[in-house]
Amino acid sequence: MFTLKNVMIAFLFLLSVILSGWSILTIKKHPIPRVKPTVSNQPDAFMEGVVAVVLNKAGVPALKITSPKMIHYPNNDTTRILSPHLTVYRNSPEPWLIQSDYAKAAHGVDEILFWSHVIIHHKKDIANLDTTLTTTTLTVFPKKETAETKAALTVWQPNTTVYAVGMLANMKAGTIKLLSQTRGVYVPSP
């Protein structure tokens, strides 16, 4: 029996089938473009109250980084570090201590650029005098245990102050090579 109600239901069902088929055919002709993920300049992670220790292959601490805040940026795999304090351990009983207002680590901790009020300190040990250096920028390569700067720096050791421009430091050997414009002041102890 054909009633108006049955005819309307059949008509609506047929209309929905036709519209669904038309929709499917339209989508195949004009596919929805895939949105490629974009790398933004936005951070993807941050940490506060950081105390991180990196161990060498033998499981012995190689370096320690402390900072009130670190922010990671994925677009160039860098980490901005606020008020960093880096401790570089080596075979000597005394580690190298490096601090500044800011730092940026690239490729994990393969290269760390320190800037603004950079202070490097190494306490006296068997082979080296107590040494403090100050500069405006410093690049540290923790795996190679080296540091370098092209900026002006001041080196303080007991009774001696040395001014220079540029430096290469081998933290493993405990040596510092001043590159240019070196001049010093020696004041003997009374």
Question: Can you tell me about this structure?
Answer:
This protein is mainly beta. It has a single domain, classed as Sandwich (lipopolysaccharide transport protein A fold). It contains one helix and eleven strands. A six-stranded antiparallel β-barrel has the order 2-3-6-7-5-4. A hairpin with a 4-residue loop joins β10 and β11.
Brief description of this entry?
The protein has 190 residues and is mainly beta. The protein is built from one helix and eleven strands, in the order αβββββββββββ.
Main attributes of the structure:
mainly beta, lipopolysaccharide transport protein A fold, six-stranded antiparallel barrel, 1 helix, 11 strands
- Class computed from helices, strands and strand pairing: mainly beta
CATH architecture: Sandwich
Total beta strand runs:
11
Biggest sheet, spatial arrangement of strands:
2-3-6-7-5-4
Low-confidence stretches: none
Strand content: over 45%
Head-to-tail CA distance between termini: 123 Å
Shape assignment: rod-shaped
CATH fold group:
lipopolysaccharide transport protein A fold
- Could you estimate the helical fraction of the residues in percent? 10-25%
CATH class: Mainly Beta
Order of helices and strands: HEEEEEEEEEEE
Main sheet summary: 6 strands, antiparallel, barrel
The count of helical stretches stands at 1
Instruction: Assign the CATH superfamily.
Output: Lipopolysaccharide (LPS) transport protein A like domain
Radius of gyration: 31 Å
Number of separate domains: 1
Mean of all residue-level pLDDT scores: 84
